[in-house]
Amino acid sequence: MSALLEVRNLQVRVEEREILHGLSLTVNKGEVHAIMGPNGSGKSTLSHVIAGKPGYEVTGGEILFKGEDLLEMSPDERAAKGVFLAFQYPVEIPGVATMTFLRTALNAQRKARGESEYSTPDFLKKVRAVAASLNIPQEMLRRGVNVGFSGGEKKRNEVLQMGLFEPSLCILDEMDSGLDIDALRIAADGVNALRSSERAMVVITHYQRLLNYIVPDFVHVMSKGRVVKSGGKELALELEEKGYAQFEEQAA
Ligand SMILES: Nc1ncnc2c1ncn2[C@@H]1O[C@H](COP(=O)(O)OP(=O)(O)OP(=O)(O)O)[C@@H](O)[C@H]1O
Ligand SMILES: [Mg+2]
What are the mean pLDDT values of the chain's consecutive 10-residue runs (252 residues total)? Predict the structure, then answer.
């Protein structure tokens, strides 16, 4: 059986500069992977390239998702196939109510998969249930997407999208940044509720603390555009203790 996500020897350039230098990562269904690594090591770049954000030039390697060439697909196709990225810096979309955005995005994905669109009552029921579980007030859903949301509210809105879209690969880029202690627990509960044998998660974080809530099966250390070490959850504790210096030497 093929892996859910297979990144092989990926090389990526941004504005003539190579950012990822031969990165490989295999994620199977049911697994939770954490990616840690110093600022600028390429974690967000990797997540953007998987989601299909424009502006990145793949100069080598490949990405397979469910055995298919992901790099050949448009960002919409990737989302419909089950790729979801919770952004480190969620974008604001003024003039588009969060509720409208969620409904349009969800129905577009369902349509692309050949599934029927949600009826208004069914959609409302679903969005209300997921929002309530994440402590997101109804009033926020009427506001423009992320417009005037606090940092923590934006992060919770990303987890809300994830809960609604039910993707098969969830990439969470620094979901914990800006969340207060209670919100962190609520958001982590929301993520854990989505853990299943049919789904995988890639959790990018700087802090071991998040991994107490979302316990990973594997931890990878990225340095200078590569995965330089992989291990179990104990690797995160080792990093907290010793820092990244030992791995940076290896990557150089
Ligand atoms: N659009 C861009 N133009 C120029 N350089 C870029 C661009 N996007 C990323 N980079 C560079 O690529 C490198 C990797 O950035 P990236 O955001 O992937 O790091 P990161 O590991 O997510 O860091 P952090 O932990 O700070 O979020 C950085 O040196 C960054 O400046
Ligand atoms: Mg980043």
Answer: 92 96 97 97 98 97 98 96 95 95 96 94 95 92 95 92 96 93 91 94 95 97 96 94 81 55
C-alpha of residue 48 to centroid of ligand 2, in Å: 10
In tens, the pLDDT along 39-58 reads 999 999 999 999 999 999 99
Query: What Å distances lie between residue 120 and 6, 24, 107, 123, CA to CA?
Result: 37, 42, 11, 5
Mutate which of 41, 47, 49 for ligand 1? The one with the most ligand atoms within 8 Å of its CB, which is 41
Query: pTM score, two decimals?
Result: 0.94
Q: How far apart are CA 96 and CA 105, in angstroms?
A: 12
User: In what helix (H) or strand (E) does residue 46 lie, and over which residues does it extend?
Assistant: helix 43-51
The CATH number given to whatever domain includes residue 223 is 3.40.50.300
The boundaries of the domain holding residue 198 are 5-251
Question: Which atom belonging to ligand 1 lies closest to the Cα atom of 174?
Answer: 27
Q: Please state the φ and ψ torsions of residue 86, each to the nearest 5 degrees.
A: -90, 110
47 lines ligand 1 (CB under 6 A): no
- In total, how many domains does the chain have? 1
Q: Strands 17-27 and 226-231: what pairing?
A: unpaired
